[in-house]
Specification:
With about 230 residues, this protein is α+β, with helices and mostly antiparallel strands. The chain is built from eight helices and ten strands. A four-stranded antiparallel β-sheet has the order 4-3-5-6, covered by helices on one side. Strands 1-2 form a two-stranded antiparallel sheet. Strand 3 and strand 4 form a beta hairpin. The chain is globular. It starts with a strand and ends with a helix.
């Protein structure tokens, strides 16, 4: 039996139900389990990593002499069992983790020793693996969390003074665009479901001026309909 919006949406026989039929019951419409994409036309190089070495929290080197170039319009995926250096690689690119050696260039700028705000200001968006630890401030409102990466910029701040109207207007727009289920823009983001918390992060990161998008588990905790929407974005 499938519940949707607090009501019974329907029932299915596990022996005859399909992934597609269950997804339809869960979100109320047909879900396409693939992303429709046109032909790729990669542009200039936007991310260059050279001989990167990074250690995890235990001091164990989990990224060893990693090299890659990623071009505009290109998706570069890193796959593998969790704990094999993906997290450390992502955090090193985002400026959250010290590099043992090597270099990171973002949009032709040496970002090797930059802290996270500088990396963000270059035009880098980051959807972190752990949304509660690195993606949100739970006690802050939905509106505040939707500008965590640019609250210090116009129109959200002028001369160090917050522009509450601009923040609330931005929040209302993103809540509608990304179907974030929240009673208002003012409630603490910690009161939202895990899936809606994830959508707050995705909405915030995808709504800025992006040159490089670094993501880790972007659809973690989301229903199939939300996952489909984010993949298409």
């Amino acid at each position: 039996t499938v519940l949707r919006g607090g009501k019974v949406a329907g029932s299915a026989d596990p022996e005859t139900a399909t992934q597609q039929s269950l997804a339809n019951l869960m979100v109320g419409r047909d879900v396409v389990f693939r992303v429709e994409k046109g032909e790729a036309h990669p542009g200039e190089t936007v991310l260059t990593i050279e001989h990167l070495c990074v250690e995890d929290d235990r001091g164990v080197q989990t990224v060893n002499d990693f090299n890659v170039q990623v071009r505009k319009g290109e998706i570069f995926g890193v796959a593998g069992v969790q704990g094999n250096g993906q997290r450390e690689l992502v955090e090193a690119i985002a400026g959250m983790r010290r590099k043992v050696s090597g270099r990171v260039h973002i949009l032709d700028v040496d970002a090797t020793k930059m802290h996270p705000r500088k990396v963000t200001d270059l035009g880098t968006a980051h959807i972190p693996e752990d949304r509660n630890k690195h993606g949100l401030v739970g006690s802050y409102s939905v509106a505040d969390n939707l500008v965590l990466n640019r609250y210090h910029k116009t129109p959200f701040s002028r001369g160090g003074v917050r522009n509450e109207d601009a923040m609330r207007s931005n929040a209302a727009e993103l809540i509608e665009q990304y179907d974030i289920r929240t009673p208002s823009v003012d409630v603490a983001v910690s009161t939202l479901s895990g899936g809606n918390q994830q959508k707050v992060i995705v909405a915030r990161e995808l709504s800025g001026e992006i040159g490089v998008l670094v993501v880790s588990q972007p659809t973690r905790g989301l229903d199939v309909g939300s996952s489909e929407f984010i993949h298409n974005q």
